[in-house]
Specification:
By secondary structure, this protein is of the alpha/beta class. It has a single domain, classed as TIM Barrel. Helix content is about 35%, strand content about 20%. The chain contains 8 helices and 12 strands. The strands form 3 sheets. An 8-stranded parallel barrel has the order 1-2-3-6-7-8-9-12, surrounded by 5 helices. Strand 1, helix 1 (about 15-25) and strand 2 form a beta-alpha-beta unit. Helix 2 runs parallel beside helix 3, helix 3 (about 80-100) packs parallel to helix 4 and helix 4 crosses helix 5. The chain is globular and about 55 Å long.
């Protein structure tokens, strides 16, 4: 099973020292967003860096975030399919030419992106896949569907498949199975993730988990026999390390080929969940969390 770390970064090189750190943490590669406006020569530098450091690369095209003038901005419009497809084909050519072990992921969380309806997402994936296949047989991933802890995400995915979302050899569908706030081996959560993998596999074929992770920010959960009460809690770094080890074993048992942990760095706000998914702390990037040991010491034969 390929273990990747979500690194974001808009298609800019990370630096050899960061690449080597990621390898030392037990990851096989990284997942990186490529801006639609990123010049091809900059993407070439990134590919060179991954090859040089013997890291695999999952490169996302047509996502809902792009970079303009060095600033990350959200684009709440569907990208032109032809532009995304052209970039996907260019990147596939770079992967093929440079011998990078990797994947192209088309789109990111289309089910929660404004204006990215089922047909637009399907059209974007099909057009991009055609462009990729003209130059390379690099594995292709239909971008990660996120809202799968609720019925809406699975309904969205099924609707896309009805409308012709690509499937078959060399094609996987990405999912982001974020959890509800219970321990993953809790009876409900454990049953949920196995059933989810089974349902998606049955419908879409191969699955790639292109984002999964836990955060340490304060949150609330339902309590009481009817679930009407609320209580505050936060997971600890040690708990999340245990969760990661359990998740890796569960993914392997469900024949998941690609598993991406979210994400590389913490942000500055300890009370904001999106700032507390990192495997490195914000205050000192030399200080990794215990979850790194879960990946470094994971032994699929045990």
């Amino acid at each position: 099973m390929n273990r990747l770390l979500n690194a974001g970064n808009g298609g800019h090189p990370m630096g050899d020292s960061t690449c080597q750190l990621i390898k030392s943490w037990g990851f096989d590669g990284v997942r990186l967003s490529i801006s639609l406006y990123q010049p091809t020569h900059m993407i070439q530098l990134l590919v060179d860096e991954l090859v040089r450091n013997e890291l695999k690369g999952m490169l996302i095209v047509g996502g809902w975030q792009v970079w303009r003038d060095g600033q990350e901005v959200e684009v709440r419009e569907a990208h032109a399919h032809e532009d995304v497809a052209a970039q996907a084909g260019d990147i596939a050519g770079l992967i093929q030419l440079n011998g990078l072990a990797g994947w192209i992921e088309c789109g990111n969380e289309p089910d929660i992106t404004k204006n990215m309806n089922h047909q637009r997402f399907v059209d974007q994936c099909r057009t991009s896949l055609a462009a990729v296949r003209r130059v390379s047989d690099v594995p292709f991933i239909n971008g990660g569907v996120s809202n799968l802890s609720k019925k809406g995400g699975l309904k969205y995915l099924r609707k896309c498949l009805e409308k012709g979302l690509p499937k078959g050899n060399g094609i996987a569908t990405g999912i982001h199975p974020y959890r509800t706030g219970l321990k993953p081996w809790d009876q409900f959560e454990g049953r949920y993730i196995n059933e989810l993998y089974e349902l998606v596999s049955e419908a879409a074929g191969a699955i790639s988990v292109t984002e999964i992770g836990w955060h340490t920010a304060p949150q609330t959960r339902k309590v009481g026999c009817l679930g009407l009460g609320r209580e505050g809690f936060a997971f600890t770094d040690a708990q999340i390390a245990d969760f990661a080890a359990w998740e890796l074993d569960t993914a392997l048992m469900n024949a998941i080929d690609v598993y991406v942990w979210y994400q590389i760095n913490d942000g500055p706000d300890p009370n904001y969940d999106m700032d507390r998914y990192g495997v490195r702390r914000f205050d000192t990037f030399d200080d990794t969390k215990p979850v790194v040991e879960s990946f470094k010491n994971w032994n699929p034969m045990v």
